[in-house]
């Protein structure tokens, strides 16, 4: 015959255990099954962070892989979202990317950035003994050639000065096709080429090294590196100097020749 007290204890433990199991089961059922957002940038390094924005205004951010441009959001609550990113310097975009996350599934995304093809860095020189620094740079860098134009801010006496260097790989009368690091003579052919400009009151003066049939100077490229499909993928630095005849003097204030010395550039494109 079962002791009454023992039976009561057994029934109480059974009820408590069943209640605990029911509690655990309900808790697991209440946990939502998240989804995954897996994406990539069309250009690695075009942004430092990608942000996932929910319709409720909540956000989460991750840093894309610096080399591959890939990124992942995991355990995302199912729903409608959009992806956005602040572009790094030199890029535009991207447009907001809408997507729907479903439980237990992976949503793919690709953020497209467009280059603004700007050049950043420094360029300086002395011209006829006066030092100048470019406040604006433009041009391009690739294995197809190096083109850099540096323009000063408005000068105290009025006007602006500008130096342009062109070292292409191809071109007629190109005596030293661009090959990266190396020395490039100026004046013995049309290319490589250097110009000096002075702009004043809608007039300009121009000096150039074209077809002088003698070396008037050189551009020395001391560093050149290019990495395709990454932000700011090409860099170059070097020095330059030249003496060139003034071919146009519409301001009436330029000497017969300009002498450019101590020229330096360190740019990224």
TrEMBL record:
It comes from Hymenobacter monticola. InterPro entries: Carb-bd-like_fold (IPR013784), DUF6252 (IPR046219). Keywords: Signal. This is Carboxypeptidase-like regulatory domain-containing protein. SUPFAM superfamilies: Starch-binding domain-like. Residues 1-18 form the signal peptide.
């Amino acid at each position: 015959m079962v002791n009454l007290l023992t039976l009561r204890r057994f029934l109480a433990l059974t009820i408590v255990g069943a209640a605990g199991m029911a509690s655990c089961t309900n808790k697991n059922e209440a946990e939502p099954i998240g989804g995954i957002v897996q994406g990539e940038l069309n250009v690695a390094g075009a942004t430092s962070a990608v942000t996932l924005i929910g319709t409720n205004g909540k956000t989460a951010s991750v840093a894309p892989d610096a080399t591959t441009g890939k990124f992942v959001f995991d355990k995302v609550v199912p729903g409608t979202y959009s992806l956005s990113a602040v572009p790094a310097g030199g890029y535009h975009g991207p447009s907001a990317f809408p997507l729907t996350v479903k439980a237990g599934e992976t949503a793919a995304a690709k953020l497209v950035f467009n280059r603004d093809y700007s050049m950043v860095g420094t360029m300086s020189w002395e011209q006829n003994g006066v030092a100048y620094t470019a406040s604006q740079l433009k041009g391009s860098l690739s294995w197809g050639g190096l083109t850099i134009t540096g323009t000063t801010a408005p000068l105290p006496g009025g006007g602006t000065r500008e130096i342009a260097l062109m070292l292409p790989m191809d071109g007629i009368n190109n005596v030293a096709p661009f090959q990266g690091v190396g020395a490039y003579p100026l004046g013995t052919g049309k290319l490589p080429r250097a110009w000096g400009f002075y702009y004043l009151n809608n007039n300009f003066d121009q000096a150039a090294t074209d077809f002088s049939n003698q070396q008037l100077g050189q551009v020395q490229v001391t560093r050149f590196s290019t990495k395709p499909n990454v932000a700011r993928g090409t860099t170059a630095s070097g020095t330059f100097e030249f003496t060139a005849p003034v071919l146009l003097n519409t301001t009436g204030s330029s000497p017969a020749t300009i002498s450019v010395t101590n020229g330096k550039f360190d740019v990224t494109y």
